[in-house]
Amino acid sequence: MKIDKELAVGVFLLIGIFSLIYISVKLGKLEVLGNEGYTLYASFENAGGLKSGANVEIAGVKIGKVDGVKLNNYQALVGLTIARNVKIQDDAIASIKTEGLLGEKYLEITPGASDKLLRNGGTIRETESAVDIQELIAKYAFGKV
Predict the structure, then answer these.
(1) What is the count of structural domains for the chain?
(2) Cα–Cα distance between 9 and 77 in angstroms, integer?
(3) Which of 18, 65, 70, 143 matches a 20 to 30 Å C-alpha distance to 52?
(4) How far apart are CA 84 and CA 39, in angstroms?
(5) How far apart are CA 69 and CA 56, in angstroms?
(6) What is the DSSP string of 35-71?
(7) What was the pLDDT predicted at 33?
(8) pLDDT tens-digit profile of 78-132?
(9) Do 128 and 61 share a domain, yes or no?
(10) Do residues 6 and 75 share a domain?
């Protein structure tokens, strides 16, 4: 009888540990088995606070994430992972946007009209850098141009 209680407690603990691991992975949005998508790149004059892990969206729908931002020839080179089922045209436009007035940065892609699609490792040529709020305030408040 004592062995049965110990076995039940052990099974209960194992279920609890696996449940915690599962919840941690889901809430942390970790990718345990690798990413399911392809990589694209985009260069910006100013990344304006865009960070690794930020969402990539089309029409407000998440289609990927920002993998990293690094300096390349005095421009911000942004790596993106895009879901395999989403195809991006070679004339698409990538823009850095802000959620709300002071929210997080994300990257929005405006689809193009071209028949040519970007492949893994391709580059989005048309980009729009982030709007610098401090620069705008300085221009209008202090008359700096």
Answers:
(1) 2
(2) 52
(3) 18
(4) 10
(5) 13
(6) --EEEEEEEES--TT--TT-EEEETTEEEEEEEEEEE
(7) 46
(8) 999 999 999 999 999 999 998 876 678 899 999 999 999 999 999 999 998 877 7
(9) yes
(10) no
